[in-house]
Amino acid sequence: MRKLVISAMFCLAAAAWMATGPGPAYGSIIHDEGVDGDLSDDRLDPTDLVLAEGTNSLIATSVSGDREYYTLTVPAGLQLSAVVMFSYSGLDETAFIAVQAGTSLTEPPTGTDPENLLGWTHFGPGAGNVGDDILDDMGLAEPAIGFSPPLASGDYTFWSQQTGVNAATYQFDFVVTPEPATLMLLGLVGVAFRRRR
Predict the structure, then answer these.
(1) Does residue 192 lie in a domain region?
(2) Strand boundaries in 91-197, DSSP class E
(3) Distance between CA atoms of 120 and 73, rounded to whole angstroms?
(4) Could you tell me the CA-to-CA distances from 132 to 51, 123, 161 in Å, in that order?
(5) Is residue 196 part of a domain?
């Protein structure tokens, strides 16, 4: 009987969390430089942003010498599944993005050792990837450390910039989904709840 009561309490708590907890934040803008001000240009003190489940959009304008550094926190139970190069507008059609694990970027903008980056890629019309998920391209870049998407919960610092003389405005959509273990746990809770009934 005691096991039944504990199981029922756990199921009720889980159901309450699912009913009242924050739902997916589809289409949320986490930072727009035109509204929220410039992203940090200091790789050791990047702008801190916390992602939510769903699509998290970041809009920035960059030009040669204007580097954007931002740390994205993927909360526990979630994963970064995609980075969609949603839009790009500018005369210089190719820009650069890199990522490292952690809350700062150790590599300087000149003399960068790509072997210390988790991943990187070029983006924009010149790279032919507007509208595409570029996270897998970042993970495959040589000679970076490399990774296979998705990226698990944790902190990741991104560096993006336009290296040409003409400014470019771009939007990244960071797509966050539940980790499989979280989905499995919620599924097991549901099965246990149905069996008890």
Answers:
(1) no
(2) 95-101, 119-123, 154-161, 168-178
(3) 18
(4) 20, 10, 18
(5) no
Domain limits at 120? Answer: 24-178
Our count of domains for the chain comes to: 1
Query: In this predicted model, what pLDDT tens digit does every residue of 31-55 receive, in sequence order?
Result: 999 999 999 999 999 999 999 999 9
Count Cβ atoms within 10 A of the Cβ of residue 150 and give its class: 0-12 exposed, 13-18 middle, 19 or more buried. buried
Are 188 and 65 contacting, i.e. CB atoms less than 8 angstroms apart? no
In a domain? residue 189? no
The conformational region for residue 165 under phi > 0 = left, psi -120 to 50 = alpha, else beta, is alpha
Is 188 exposed, middle or buried, given 0-12, 13-18 or 19+ CB atoms closer than 10 A?
Answer: exposed
Instruction: Write out the H or E segment, with its range, that includes residue 22.
Output: none
- Alpha-carbon gap, residue 176 to 190, rounded angstroms: 23
Residue 1 in domain: no
- Say what the pTM is: 0.81
Instruction: Give the residue ranges of DSSP H helices in 21-165.
Output: 33-36, 135-140
